[in-house]
Write a sequence for this structure.
């Protein structure tokens, strides 16, 4: 109780006594009662005051410390309770252990000075400790430097002393981690500085960390670049790949991914675009709400330039110098996949120049080719980044356009093209009334792969009843067109009437000259003896269910025939058969092959399946697993027509093939074309390094055979050794070959 309160009470007491005396004087008969009540009241008040004083003036440290200590003793943090006069200091077990103090007898002041890093305990210092957090470092009993941040609160205060409670936050481990991290960071920064490989990692959910190599290559201002800014360096035509990859990276939540590869062009410090490969991985990081990804960033421009030679051969249409069908299929499938990921939609328009043969007939082939070229370049006007214009075949072209939700776009683009074409006709082919027709489908809604979508656009074009018109694909159109096809009906009858027959073309070892195998090539032999080549009916069969029936016949017949030759005592050879895409993607293909082998008794190692690259591209994961299931049976796998399709040597890494067939187009020119020779020998070298055998198709003379033998090619197939022949001619071939190369 303070002085002011005491004066107030004394004053009230004096006033009350005067009042009682005065009242007793004027009412003497009540004097005794009044005095008694007054005395009793004063006594009660006096006792209350005494108790109050005892309580408030009692030694607060003893009472309160005992309460608090029991609560804080075993808490998992350092706690010290102390008075500013150093009369009482209590530490909980954790702090006592740290200071190695076991007894209750210790120098209070010394301990306070040590834990708070202070020279003395003055009211000012106590006030300062109380006001804000206090960072201290002292040596623990083990000799380790201990770092603690103290938060101090005033627990109680009386006239003489204040009782404080300080709670510590031990930073010792964090500080040591920080210093380790700093040295790890320094090492990382140094290795990044010296590395010639760029490293690109997501830093948070909006920025990349770019290593010094990338910063230098792209001419970045700092090693941190926002996702958006980084994207602006990507070539506009490659952004769709980048975007879909980026979306994929961000959709992988908390799971580590396989290593992925993204190839794209990026604007470099010099302003020109270069090719880069980004091999990255999504890394699992616990507690992160966004995926963390990172990987190596490499300039692959030189490799891409080498690939360009192959790409040019494989992807460029010679007449028009725009993309060919292969490029269309490759880019189309990539666009399909990216589109699905990004939920983008596209239009695929197929165009046909009406009565093109008249231009050829009346203006000559050179002018016909010129018209194709002019038309091709005209189409480019309508292609935006991410789209494509390609020549599919003859006078057929295709356009891929981004669909921004405008359903009239195909029709509008078509009429603009029609107008351009008529202007062309007025200027250059004055007497001809040129027009084109078109069919279109929407991607990805109208099919399960790009090939499906393209075929559907082609069906729409075929179903177009009027020339100069455009027609949209509708579901069900496919069936009606197929149903109407006369060729198809005839082919179906031919299968029923056993008009299909297999011819066999020998394959020769280039080192020994001996026959090592034959390729089964299907022929349609009409009742009048005309032989229809597969090029005329296999593509039609591929557009319908008929190919399944043809392939089943080929598979069983080829196995039966090979077994028959073995039983006849001829040398054991490998029988190759060709599979169409729809055959290959059948789920029960393995079972069918297994049954054919079992039925014929042929060992699996004497059967080889030839597949094309385009086929594998349709669904690469499924293709690999299907191929592996055939390999598990013991069947060999060849990649047919290598060099005409996608020709990415990277497929050799992924696809489990045993033989690579170099396409005839390389072999035809190999004597005169140095680039063709360079490509062939490079491919042979790479295949060898992957333990894949090589065979050259279409060898027609000894010079070609010599060149290929020297280049290290294992086998050869071509008219030089033998054309595809009926089975009855093979025994004679065996005999001759056997006599020649004993
Ligand atoms: P392919 O599998 O690449 O077959 C090789 C083609 O090249 C054969 O044509 C063969 O006669 C021809 N050829 C071989 N050596 C020479 C040569 O020295 N010079 C020339 N100019 N040509 C040569 P063919 O028999 O007309 O077959 C064409 C294509 O039809 C085959 O190409 C294959 O893709 C397909 N095909 C053939 N039989 C079948 C089959 O049973 N099923 C499937 N799905 N497709 C088949
Ligand atoms: Mg083949
Ligand atoms: Mg081939």
């Amino acid at each position: 109780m303070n002085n002011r309160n005491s004066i107030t009470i004394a004053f009230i007491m004096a006033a009350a006594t005067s009042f009682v005396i005065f009242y007793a004087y004027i009412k003497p008969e009540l004097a005794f009662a009044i005095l008694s009540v007054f005395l009793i009241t004063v006594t009660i008040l006096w006792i209350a005051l005494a108790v109050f004083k005892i309580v408030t003036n009692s030694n607060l440290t003893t009472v309160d410390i005992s309460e608090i200590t029991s609560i804080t003793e075993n808490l998992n943090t350092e706690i010290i309770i102390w008075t500013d006069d150093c009369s009482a200091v209590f530490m909980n077990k954790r702090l006592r252990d740290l200071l190695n103090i076991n007894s209750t007898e210790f120098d209070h002041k010394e301990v306070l000075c040590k834990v708070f890093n202070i020279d003395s305990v003055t009211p000012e210092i106590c006030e300062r400790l109380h006001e804000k957090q206090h960072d201290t470092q002292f040596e623990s009993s083990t000799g380790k430097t201990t770092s603690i941040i103290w938060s101090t609160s005033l627990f109680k205060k009386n006239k003489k002393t204040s009782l404080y409670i300080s709670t510590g936050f031990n930073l010792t481990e964090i500080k040591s981690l920080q210093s380790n991290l700093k040295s790890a960071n320094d090492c990382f920064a140094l290795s990044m500085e010296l590395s010639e490989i760029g490293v690109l990692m997501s830093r948070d959910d909006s920025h990349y960390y770019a290593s010094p190599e990338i910063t230098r290559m792209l001419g970045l201002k700092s090693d941190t670049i926002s996702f958006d800014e980084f994207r602006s360096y990507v070539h506009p035509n490659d952004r769709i790949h980048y975007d879909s990859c980026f979306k994929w990276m961000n959709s992988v939540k908390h799971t580590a991914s396989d290593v992925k590869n993204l190839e794209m062009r990026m604007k470099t410090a010099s302003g020109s675009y270069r090719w880069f490969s980004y091999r990255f991985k999504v890394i699992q990081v616990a507690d992160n709400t966004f995926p963390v990804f990172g990987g190596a960033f490499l300039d692959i421009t030189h490799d891409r330039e080498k690939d360009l030679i192959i790409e040019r051969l494989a992807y460029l249409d010679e007449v028009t110098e725009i993309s060919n069908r292969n490029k269309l299929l490759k880019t189309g499938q990539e666009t399909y996949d990216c589109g699905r990921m990004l939920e983008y939609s596209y239009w695929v328009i197929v165009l046909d120049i009406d009565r093109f043969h008249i231009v050829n007939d009346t203006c000559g082939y050179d002018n016909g080719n010129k018209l194709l070229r002019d038309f091709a370049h005209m189409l480019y006007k309508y292609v935006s980044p991410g789209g494509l214009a390609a020549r599919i075949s003859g006078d057929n072209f295709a356009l891929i356009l981004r669909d921004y939700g405008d359903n009239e776009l195909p029709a509008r683009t078509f009429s603009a093209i029609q107008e351009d074409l008529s202007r062309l006709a007025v200027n250059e082919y004055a007497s001809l009334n040129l027009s084109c027709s078109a069919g279109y489908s929407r991607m990805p809604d109208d099919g399960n792969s790009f090939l499906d979508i393209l075929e559907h656009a082609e069906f729409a074009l075929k179903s177009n009843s009027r020339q100069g018109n455009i027609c949209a694909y509708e579901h069900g159109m496919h069936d009606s067109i197929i149903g109407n096809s006369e060729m198809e009906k005839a082919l179906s009858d031919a299968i029923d009437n056993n008009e299909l027959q297999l011819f066999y073309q020998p394959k020769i070892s280039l080192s020994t000259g001996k026959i090592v195998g034959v390729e089964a090539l299907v022929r349609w032999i009409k009742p009048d003896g005309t032989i229809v080549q597969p090029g005329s009916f296999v593509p039609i069969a591929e557009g319908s269910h008929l190919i399944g029936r043809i392939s089943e016949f080929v598979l069983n017949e080829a196995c039966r025939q090979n077994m028959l030759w073995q039983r006849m005592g001829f040398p054991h050879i490998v029988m190759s058969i060709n599979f169409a895409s729809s055959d290959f993607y059948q789920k029960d293909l393995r079972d069918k092959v297994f049954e054919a082998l079992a039925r014929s008794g042929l060992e699996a190692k004497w059967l080889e399946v030839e597949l094309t690259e385009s086929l594998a591209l349709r669904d690469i994961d499924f293709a690999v697993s299907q191929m592996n299931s055939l390999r598990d049976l013991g069947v060999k796998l060849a990649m047919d027509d290598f060099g005409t399709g996608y020709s990415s040597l990277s497929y050799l890494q992924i696809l489990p093939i045993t033989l690579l067939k170099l396409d005839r187009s390389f072999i035809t020119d190999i004597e005169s074309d140095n680039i063709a020779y360079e490509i062939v020998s490079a491919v042979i070298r790479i295949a060898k390094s992957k333990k894949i055998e090589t065979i050259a198709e279409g060898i027609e003379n000894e010079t070609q055979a010599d060149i290929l033998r020297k280049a290290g090619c294992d086998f050869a197939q071509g008219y030089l050794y033998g054309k595809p022949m009926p089975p009855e001619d093979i025994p004679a071939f065996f005999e001759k070959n056997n006599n020649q190369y004993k």
